[in-house]
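Reopening this one. Same input as before:
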Amino acid sequence: MTALRDVRRPDFYLVASSPNAPVVPIELPIVAVVIPAYRAASTVASVIAAVPAFVRHVVVVDDGSPDATGQVVRDLRDPRVDLVRLERNQGVGAAVMAGYQRAAALGAEVVAKMDADGQMDPDHLLTLITPIVIGRADYTKGNRFLHARELRSMPGRRRFGNAGLSFLTKLASGYWDIFDPTNGYTAIHASLVPMLGEAPIGKRYFFESSMLLSLSLLRGVVHDVYIPARYPVGAASHLSESRAALQFPWRLLRGFVRRIVQQYFVRDFTAVSLYLVFGILLGLFGAIWGVWHWALASEAGVAATTGTVMLAVLPIIVGVQLLLQALTLDIQNVPTEPVHASVRLVTADHAQGARP
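Same output, byte for byte:
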């Protein structure tokens, strides 16, 4: 699949499924860009100016900035700009969700998120939204590591941490085909915004990971899109590696438990459910039996019998095998049917006529 490409008529774009396939003109939906801004008075104007012309709405969320960020935005003459002001700083997650809601209210059908520091190249915006526009995804995110040169340029510690965090996010969300979970260059189909409702979306730097956890409960389709990293002069990551290492695993563990309970015990009951139940029970039985009889044998000063040892080892082996089988089936159960394919956006004027 290749990206959408501009043609002479500004309202139409071409999609090519392969380099040799014929191109077909399609109408681009209403696209909005949400820019969460905090202490961004020196950079936000240039970021807004670089937003492509096909974007209908640019929603800037001033997240309680103590500097002149809001005033800089108000002074711009771009008619696309819509400023949302949060009275106090709530974090990037809260700002993005406020921007999503505003963009949806303005009639946007696809909403992209770009940061105010200039690290997200607007030239890749069409590439990012392509899977959503052609109906193959509900949510897309950038991936900086699909090519070896990005991996080689990254310090070993950062590479190891990103790999570990990516695996934990895969396990927690069930999206086994994604990587680079903290990448903030994302896009979402606007019909999913009200579906998120009161979902526990992280308000600060856990936002991107918690978004994936919430989308997994909706069975939304998520696609990675290769977008190379861009680091403007003076720009730096605000995500603390030590903070992520201490806080993210526990939050991802809670998300994993919530997803497993919802997906395999509340909304459905499948072979995965059986494997999980019997795998956990057999593993616990073997471990408790083994520890108990080891303690008895140590106190008596005699070796445990072969039968006692086998009664501990066999349940553990079988339990592990069942859990591995559950994991294999979970990997094969990644969502493939976009949620928004069954949802139609209409304006308020057509809402009554659209009712069955």
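So the earlier flakiness isn't reproducible anymore. For the record, The radius of gyration is 24 Å.
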